[in-house]
Amino acid sequence: TNSRDNSLRLIDMRTNDTLMTLTSPSYRNGVNWARACFSPDGAYVSAGSASGEIIVWRTLKAKEDSVLSGHTGIVSAVDWSSTGSQLASCGKDHVALIWE
Questions:
Q1: How far from chain centre, in Å, is Cα 7?
Q2: N or C: which end of the chain has fewer CB within 10 A?
Q3: CA 55, CA 46: separation in Å to the nearest integer?
């Protein structure tokens, strides 16, 4: 889930148990329908923030890895390339960015 409580939660759909909760002081969900995304190898998860930043967490450690700045408005969606070498983001500022 990518929730208005400013957290990402990995849920086991069979049991409805929360397996992992990701938070960051930099992360604020700015829209009702925001798209977070795992990297192809599952090592990272990323999500856009209301501040215009993209937060990247290390999945195994459940810790923030990096914060990417470049948007001037809410980031509503992120997606990794099939190789995991690039991350795309788009926001309410009408800008799409590719991160390497």
A1: 10
A2: C
A3: 6
